[in-house]
Structures are given as structure tokens and as C-alpha cells.
């Protein structure tokens, strides 16, 4: 294809992706009410535990409610329309990839997407406990008003951070397949991995919520060791292939 044909193809894929996102946003805008009700469940629980009139979701501007729904529609619409715009991206770049690159790309996406959603699910399950624990530090004479924008930003960032952290083991395996890091080196760094996972969990969750911190740290450590062991298996397979080809795996240059 010529440069002009590539540009026309990119424009066509972009239009389909934008249309898919728009459709997803429309659907997401319709379902914002049950989503808001689900996300604000911790506020209602805290309010009931304190006898009422203690915790409320606060909208400080005239258009705050509308702005919140638009932001939610965009983020939820991105998820709902992901199959459409991901396919448009894939269909655009696939003709330029070799068969081996296509196989690795499909494997990477096939592992990364479920792990990201698993991380998001864990974040949604952990976030209410974080909010409830931190609200316990508000004195009896005080009230806890949650600004709608800040509250949504907290939930969204929390989900994104935990979701991305779940995908990191996939990048570890990718580095192994690229020959940058061996599985044995990953296993040797288990102490550092446990320390980093614990620190990350401690930062992502409040210090008072020990249960959520241990849960998140435990999951990240398990994913790390799973990636390391999978990399060890890949290294053994590479070694067997090199030996069968008459190569010295310990001295590939020779």
C-alpha cells in the first residue's frame, strides 16, 4: 500500500473506532444510575453505621451531576467498546506483522486483557473496605461529605493502578521471550519482588486496612512467581531447541 492508502485506511479504522466508542458511551450514559449506586454503596453503609446524616455524596457545582455522568460514560464506554476499537487497531497493524509476531501479540493481549479486568475487579472489591476504614478516623462530631469528582477520581485511579499492576507479569514474560531477562534471574530476585509488592500494596491501600494490603500484596506476589516459573519453562524450551540445533546455549555467540 502507498502512503496515501495507509492514511485512508487509518482514517477508516479511526472512524469505526470513534463510532464504536460513541455507541458505548450512549449505552454507558444510560446505565450510570446503577453504576453510581454500586460505587456509592460504601457511603450508605458508613452513613447507616454512624446513625445517618454522617456521609453523603456531594455535588458542588450546577453541572457537577452532568459532568460526572459524562466522565463515567467515557470510561465505561471505552470498556464496552473495547472489542470494536481494539479490533480496528489490530486490523490496521496486522498486515505488517510476521506470523511469529502475530502469535506473540495475540498471546500478549489474550493474557493482559483478562489480568487487567481481574485487577479491576479486585480493586472494586477492595475500594469499599478502604473507604470504610478511612472514614472511621472522622471524629464523632464531624461529618464526611465526599465530593463527587474526587470520589470518582479515587475509584477510577484505584482501579487503573491495580489493573495495570496485574498486567506487569505479562511484561515480565515478554522480556523473557525477548531474551532480556531469564526466568532464573526472576526467581533470584524474589526478595526484591516481595518487598516491592508489599510496598506497592501499602501505598495503594491505607495503613489501617491491613487485610486489603495483605490481599493485594499476596496476589501480586503469586502473579510474580507465576511469571517467573513460566519464564523458566520457556528458557528450558529454548535450551532444548538450541541443543537440538547443535548450538551452545551457554555461549550463543560461538
Q: In words, what does this structure look like?
A:
With 254 residues, this protein is mainly alpha-helical. Helices cover 78% and strands 3% of the residues. The protein has ten helices and two strands. The chain has helices at residues 3-30, 32-39, 41-49, 64-80, 82-93, 99-135, 148-177, 183-188, 190-204, 210-244; strands at 55-58, 144-147. It has a two-stranded parallel sheet. Helix 6 packs antiparallel against helix 7 (148-177) and helix 9 (190-204) packs antiparallel against helix 10. The radius of gyration is 23 Å and the shape is flat. The model has no long low-confidence stretch (mean pLDDT 82).
Summarize the structure.
The chain is mainly alpha-helical. It is 78% helix and 3% strand. It has helices at 3-30, 32-39, 41-49, 64-80, 82-93, 99-135, 148-177, 183-188, 190-204, 210-244; strands at residues 55-58, 144-147.
Amino acid at each position: 500500500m502507498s502512503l496515501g492508502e495507509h492514511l485512508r485506511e487509518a482514517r477508516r479504522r479511526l472512524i469505526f473506532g470513534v463510532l464504536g466508542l460513541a455507541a458505548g458511551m450512549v449505552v454507558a450514559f444510560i446505565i450510570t444510575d446503577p453504576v453510581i449506586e454500586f460505587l456509592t454503596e460504601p457511603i450508605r453503609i458508613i452513613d447507616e453505621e454512624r446513625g445517618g446524616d454522617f456521609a453523603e455524596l456531594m455535588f458542588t457545582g450546577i453541572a457537577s451531576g452532568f459532568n460526572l455522568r459524562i466522565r463515567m460514560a467515557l470510561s465505561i464506554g471505552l470498556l464496552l467498546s473495547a472489542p470494536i476499537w481494539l479490533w480496528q487497531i489490530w486490523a490496521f497493524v496486522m498486515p505488517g506483522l510476521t506470523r511469529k509476531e502475530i502469535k506473540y501479540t495475540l498471546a500478549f493481549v489474550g493474557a493482559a486483557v483478562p489480568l487487567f479486568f481481574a485487577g479491576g475487579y479486585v480493586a472494586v472489591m477492595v475500594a469499599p473496605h478502604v473507604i470504610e476504614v478511612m472514614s472511621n478516623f472522622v471524629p464523632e462530631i464531624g461529618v464526611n461529605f465526599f465530593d463527587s469528582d474526587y470520589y470518582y477520581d479515587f475509584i477510577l485511579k484505584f482501579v487503573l493502578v491495580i489493573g495495570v499492576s496485574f498486567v506487569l507479569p505479562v511484561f515480565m514474560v515478554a522480556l523473557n521471550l525477548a531474551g532480556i531477562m531469564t526466568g532464573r534471574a526472576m526467581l533470584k530476585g524474589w526478595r526484591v519482588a516481595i518487598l516491592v509488592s508489599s510496598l506497592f500494596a501499602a501505598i495503594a491501600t491505607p495503613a489501617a486496612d491491613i487485610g486489603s494490603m495483605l490481599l493485594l500484596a499476596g496476589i501480586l506476589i503469586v502473579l510474580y512467581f507465576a511469571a517467573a516459573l513460566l519464564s523458566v519453562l520457556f528458557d528450558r524450551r529454548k535450551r532444548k531447541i538450541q541443543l537440538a540445533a547443535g548450538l551452545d546455549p551457554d555461549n550463543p555467540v560461538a
